[in-house]
Design goal:
- The complex is a heterotetramer of chains A (203), B (528), C (314) and D (95).
- In chain A, 80% of the residues lie in helices and 0% in strands.
- Chain A has 203 residues and is mostly helical.
- A five-stranded mixed sheet of chain C has the order 3-2-1-5-8, with no helix packed on it. Chain C has a five-stranded mixed sheet with strand order 4-10-9-6-7, with helices on one face.
- Classes of the chains: A mainly alpha (203), B mainly alpha (528), C alpha+beta (314), D mainly alpha (95).
- Chains in contact: A-B, A-D, B-C, B-D.
- At the B-C interface, helix 3, helix 8, helix 9, helix 10 and helix 11 of B face helix 1, helix 2, strand 7 and strand 9 of C.
- The structure holds heme-A (2 copies), dinuclear copper ion and copper (II) ion.
Chain lengths: 203, 528, 314, 95
């Protein structure tokens, strides 16, 4: 028996390529839902406009600002680690997680409000409404829901890199994990950038 | 000489060393074993279905059972056998070797893919015995039926979702590998055509599978929460589901066939001892098929109620995709010209592939023409078409590759005579089994029928008899292969005299694949 | 004859044989060349291979020629399709309702039947929809097919050019009895058709229907259970199909399930009425919960007629 | 295969500026929504959203600093999504 030599090839560009390819799959995953959205919106334009009136633009806008800001802190944390400023990078990462959590809390209250008012899939209030509104709320829950799951996963990943930064696994000489996590986080942000006008601003 | 990867101790000993390995060769073999096991499940189901269909009025089991059988047969064959079949097993084993790499780019993700695949498969099988009974929707999961049926669709669909995730990750992994880990000197125009094929396939896996994932998730949400996207009573549009399903599933048929084409492109030069004809054309046509394959999904929906304009557009695009397949066929045949041909089993299976795939592909043209499609859609004509391309095409290509790389995988040779005998029996059985279905289909026998009118008796009987002959052939082939794993003659490192990199190392290869990083100085099919 | 083959009134056959011709030519030529090469350049005959790499002319040829051919095929397919999709203005409209697992054809004067009756040599336009899941209407003899989509109307037309009785299949998988969702197209002489069309209640021709006495002047229960598709799931001879048999149903003791709790009851008028309008309330034990509600599908007199008829089935 | 990532240090100021631009665009898109531009508002909304997405991709996701290969790669999913949505609409528009 031969002991297996420790093969560890660290390929920075390769890892980043892998992440980008993975992001492509995320884009296509969401594009399936955007397809449904665009078609049902075309068919039920009026209903969609009316249904969007139930949304709180303020909450949506606040969430947009939160997510945009979190994106900035994320990218700053990468800049910091590149310069070797470990603590600063950790502070930025923590801030990103906090913003992510704030986004989710905000979303939770938004959902709760709608559900209390009876707008949830298959509720008798909703079924009594026009087809377009049923579809609008279906899409609203599914799209923001799946997006929310992504925010949750992203925040989890950042927690992970936070500890890795503390332990020095992520460092000025090897920060690809942090950079890839950042890419994921930004993509989640990009998707929200589209969700916001499509659900909140079409009244 | 170094010890082969079978005898190298990894991080874990024994079985765990296989289940948690990160070695692409072991993972390739794991995939081979699992997908072949699923293949036998699917084959058994196919046989059981044919028994029921032997004549009209036959009642071996209930209609509900039959419906579950063909659903399972389709799901197993498509998602558990033929999609992972070539790329994940042969591709995993051979592609990094052909690159001169030590492993794929992300070995851990590679084993994760296998685990997702197995768990997904296990869930799909669990769905048979739990909940409201085995799913009965057909492999297409068309709504609203798949939403209304009381059977265990949700679990099965979730299983397929995981399998899709596995397929996506494999695609991502292979793309990164081919981009980043080519040996020095292995430029893009020296890449073996099998690797080119895997490359094109990986793009399709990467970009199409997520659409399936979301479609399946939507079925689950529809069933669990009643969101209403596909429920006409709530304004949903069932035809949109068909769009989303085929946006994935048409590209998926090219995930199935392109790797098989790659296998054939690698085998032909070796056994005719000459360079492949039209290397660039073959490599480029793989990419073209992958790309155009995106534009034609609507040809499955010519009678679905889709707009007539769409039907015309999709029919047009469908015909475009036939051209690159033709280019491949012509180049393969031209490659034989002035060769020095030895008709060994791999080449025999490869030529069988060309013939059967041509029949399947050419009948695809009949499917794609609008006027004829209205008649044959949803009949046995379609069933015949896709068995010709999938079984006659992909599975024969898979068998060809299995024989070709067998010595590399196991370090032993199979027996030549039974391999050829099996081919002949398979070939005869195959044509009896499936050609009869073309006739049935043109005469109007609908597919997914538990029972049929007596006037369809004749060809159905022939077809069932064909399935038995096919079974005999398969049995001989696999008996020969399995026996040879243990008792075959020792093969040298390069029994066929191949020029691609996988033949430049030991059989079976050592864990690190190559003793030193190989340098590539010539094309993949230069024998002199 | 069940399948007019070849059927010249429809372009599908011409297109079919055109493509088959081209395909057979290619397949034959390719295979012949392939076998010839394998034999001629076998290692015995030709031990020294020659490396021939590329030939631009050939590549161009076998790209361009198939491209032209497939475009021609596309074009003939499209032409045939145009003919098949352009409904003549004088076509007789018939509404088709597909449901699990029966067909209902409704004519302009409101007459309904479970068999598609058409006069010979007069174009027919089918306006198709579905009450539940996807189905597909397929008449092999006329080479036409179109899905039945709930919530949407699709259409087809054909010219019944020969007298006779032809198969009509469902070709979109729709559940257990998908392969039983078969009926007939009866192409009748003009006069017979007129007589039927103008005549009284729907004729009973479907399998398994027995004539019973009608309630004077009212709708006829026996033909209603046929036309409304009940017989797809219920038999008249005592054997359970998808649902319980109608034979002896009245006064029968039945175990039903409501909200997961079982109880026994005796089938009476009220229960039948309830099952027809709100089948989801009490489900007969041992059967799948798929009995469709007939709310809005049956008028009150029709309901009474069916109940009356079921009573008579001893 | 490089062992060490190439260093491209971007001043933090750039990112802060981009962030401010993003906030400004958010404000703009909300304003546009209240202007009731009718059919145009959809176009304006999507244009602004795409500008924002572009900014995030270009600066935050470092596409600007990547080589041509990564930049070109990104066109592939975009093209795919366009094809998928575009071809499906041929059904919806003409049905
Ligand atoms: C391996 C899988 C595979 C492959 C490769 C193909 C290849 C093709 N398929 Fe097939 N197809 C399926 C798997 C596959 N298909 C499956 C599974 C279904 C049914 C799914 C279901 O409903 O359950 C299906 C159904 C299907 C339909 C829908 C039928 C219907 O339901 O109504 C259509 C319609 O256009 C079609 C067309 C084609 C075409 C044009 C090709 C082309 O790519 C073929 C190209 C090849 C050739 C043309 C032959 C080689 C060329 C020559 C010999 C040169 C001469 C050529 C010319 C003159 C052009 N296929
Ligand atoms: C790769 C794909 C693949 C393969 C290989 C097969 C293989 C077979 N299929 Fe396949 N089939 C599909 C994919 C495939 N099928 C799909 C996708 C569908 C559509 C499902 C749907 O409608 O949803 C379908 C549907 C389908 C139908 C139509 C059902 C219907 O519409 O009602 C039929 C009917 O005859 C059929 C038959 C068979 C048979 C007889 C085989 C045979 O190959 C089986 C023959 C082989 C044997 C009989 C070998 C047995 C071998 C042994 C016993 C040896 C044991 C060996 C050892 C011990 C080592 N299949
Ligand atoms: Cu109705 Cu199949
Ligand atoms: Cu297809």
């Amino acid at each position: 028996m031969v002991e297996l030599a420790h093969i560890e090839h660290r390929d920075y560009t390769g890892a980043k390529l892998g992440m980008w390819l993975f992001l492509f799959t995320e884009i296509l995953l969401f594009s399936g839902m955007f397809l449904l959205y665009s078609i049902y919106r075309t068919v039920h334009t009026e209903d969609f406009h009316e249904a969007a009136g139930e949304m709180s633009v303020v909450l949506g806008a606040v969430n947009t600002v939160i997510l945009l800001t979190s994106s900035m802190t994320m990218v700053l944390s990468i800049s910091a680690i590149k310069r070797g400023e470990r603590v600063r990078s950790m502070i930025y990462q923590a801030a990103t997680v906090v913003f992510g959590a704030a986004f989710l809390v905000n979303k939770f209250f938004e959902w709760r409000e709608h559900i209390l008012r009876g707008f949830y899939p298959n509720s008798s209030e909703l079924l009594a409404m026009s087809h377009g509104k049923i579809l609008y709320f279906g899409l609203y829950y599914v799209m923001t829901g799946i997006h929310g799951v992504h925010v949750l996963i992203g925040a989890g990943l950042i927690c992970l890199t936070f500890f890795q930064t503390r332990k020095g696994v992520v460092s000025a000489s090897d920060y690809i994990k942090l950079e890839n996590t950042g890419l994921f986080w930004h993509l989640v942000d990009v998707i929200w950038i589209y969700l916001f006008p499509l659900f909140y601003l079409i009244t | 000489m170094e010890t082969s990867f079978y005898h190298t101790r990894g991080r874990y000993p024994g079985v765990l060393g296989w289940l948690f390995t990160t070695d692409h060769k072991r993972i390739g073999l794991l995939y081979l074993i699992t997908s072949l096991s699923f293949f036998f499940v699917g084959v058994g189901l196919g046989l059981t279905m044919r028994l029921e269909l032997i004549r009209s009025g036959m009642h071996l089991y209930s209609a509900q059972t039959y419906n579950a059988l063909f659903t399972l047969h389709g799901v197993v064959m498509i998602f558990l056998f033929i999609i992972p079949g070539i790329p994940s097993s042969l591709g995993n084993f051979v592609m990094p070797l052909q690159l001169g790499a030590r492993d794929v780019a992300f070995p851990k993700i590679n084993i994760l893919s296998w685990w997702l695949f197995v768990i997904g498969g296990a869930l799909a099988v669990t769905a048979l015995f739990t909940g409201g009974g085995p799913p009965d929707t057909g492999w297409t999961f068309y709504v609203p039926y798949s939403i209304r049926t009381g059977t265990n669709v949700t679990l099965a669909v979730f299983g397929v979702f995981l399998i899709g995730l596995s397929s996506t990750l494999t695609g991502m992994n292979f793309l990164a590998t081919i981009h980043r880990l080519r040996a020095p000197g292995l430029t893009w125009n020296r890449l073996p055509l099998f690797t080119w094929a895997i490359y094109a396939t990986s793009w399709v896996q990467l970009l199409a599978t997520p659409v399936l994932a979301i479609t399946l998730l939507l079925i689950i949400m529809e069933r669990s929460f009643g969101v209403g996207f596909f429920d006409p009573a709530k304004g949903g549009d069932p035809i949109l589901f068909e769009h989303m399903f085929w946006i994935y599933s048409h590209p998926a048929v090219y995930i199935m066939i392109i790797p098989a084409m790659g296998v054939v492109s690698d085998i032909i030069p070796v056994f005719s001892r000459k360079v492949i004809f039209g290397y660039t054309a073959i490599a480029a046509s793989s990419l073209t098929i992958a790309f155009v394959g995106y534009l034609v999904w609507g040809h499955h929906m010519f009678t679905s109620g889709m707009s007539d304009t769409s039907r015309v557009i999709f029919s047009f695009l469908t015909f475009i995709v036939a051209v690159p397949s033709g280019i491949k066929v012509f180049n393969w045949i031209a490659s034989l010209y002035k060769g020095s041909i030895k008709l060994d089993a791999p080449l025999l299976y490869a030529l069988g592939f060309i013939f059967l795939f041509s029949i399947g592909g050419l009948t695809g043209l009949i499917n794609g023409a609008l006027a004829t499609n209205l008649h044959i859609h949803g009949t046995y004509f379609i069933v015949a078409h896709f068995h010709y391309v999938m079984f006659g095409g992909t599975a024969f290509g898979f068998f060809a590759g299995l024989h070709y790389w067998f010595p590399k995988m196991f370090g032993r040779l199979y027996k030549e005579y039974p391999a050829k005998l099996a081919f002949i029996i398979l070939f005869i059985g195959f044509n009896l089994l499936y050609f009869s279905m073309f006739i049935l289909g043109w005469e109007g026998m609908p597919r997914r029928y538990y029972d049929y009118l007596p006037r369809f008796n004749g060809p159905n009987l022939v077809s069932t008899i064909g399935s038995w002959i096919l079974a005999v052939g398969l049995f001989i082939m696999f008996y020969n292969l399995i026996r040879s794993v243990f008792a075959g003659e020792k093969a040298g490192d390069n029994p066929w005299g191949g020029a691609t990199l996988e033949w430049q190392t030991a059989s079976p290869p050592p864990t690190e694949n190559f003793e030193s990083v190989p340098e590539v100085t010539k094309g993949p099919y230069t024998y002199r | 004859m069940t399948l007019g083959w070849p059927n010249l009134s429809n372009p599908a056959d011409a297109v079919f044989f055109f493509i088959v011709g081209i395909s057979v030519a290619f397949l034959f030529a390719n295979t012949a060349v392939m076998i010839y090469f394998v034999v001629r350049y076998s290692r015995k005959r030709n031990p020294n291979p020659e490396d021939i790499k590329d030939n631009l002319t050939l590549e161009v040829l076998w790209t361009v020629i198939p491209t032209i051919l497939v475009l021609v095929i596309f074009f003939v397919g499209w032409k045939g399709f145009q003919y098949m999709r352009t409904v003549p203005p004088d076509a007789m409209p018939v509404k088709v309702l597909a449901k699990q697992w029966s067909w209902t054809f409704t004519y302009e004067n409101g007459k309904q039947d479970s068999v598609l009756r058409v006069p010979v040599r007069k174009p027919v336009k089918l306006l198709i929809t579905s009450a539940d899941v996807l189905h597909s209407l397929f008449i092999p003899a006329y080479r036409i097919k179109e899905d039945c989509v709930p919530g949407m109307e699709t259409h087809l037309w054909f010219l019944p050019d020969q007298l006779g009785s032809y198969d009509l299949f469902c070709t979109e998988y729709c559940g257990v009895a998908h392969s039983d969702m078969i009926t007939k197209v009866e192409v009748m002489p003009e006069k017979d058709f007129e007589a039927w069309y103008k005549g009284g209640a729907a004729e009973e021709t479907g399998p398994g229907t027995k004539t019973t006495k009608k309630i004077a002047g009212g709708p006829d229960g026996a033909s209603l259970v046929q036309v409304k598709g009940c017989l797809a799931c219920h038999s008249l001879d005592g054997s359970p199909k998808i649902g319980p048999s109608f034979k002896g149903i009245f006064g029968k003791k039945e175990t039903v399930v409501r909200d997961g709790k079982e109880r026994e009851l005796v089938v009476d008028e009220a229960f039948i009425k309830q099952t027809l309008l709100h089948p989801e309330l009490d489900r007969v034990k041992g059967f799948p919960p798929i009995m469709p509600s007939q709310q809005g599908q049956l008028t009150d007199p029709e309901l009474d007629a069916i109940i009356h008829y079921l009573k008579s089935l001893k | 295969m490089e062992q060490k990532p190439a260093q491209h240090l971007v001043p933090s100021k750039t990112f802060v500026l981009v962030w401010m631009a993003l906030l400004a665009l958010t404000a703009l898109t909300i304003t546009a929504a209240y202007l009731h531009l009718g059919a145009l508002s959809m176009v304006v909304n999507l244009l602004i959203a795409s500008t924002k997405a572009g900014l995030v991709l270009w600066f935050f996701m470092h596409l600007k600093y990547e080589n041509r290969f990564f930049q070109a790669l990104f066109l592939i999913p975009i093209a795919t999504v366009t094809i998928i949505i575009g071809l499906t609409f041929f059904d919806i528009w003409y049905r």
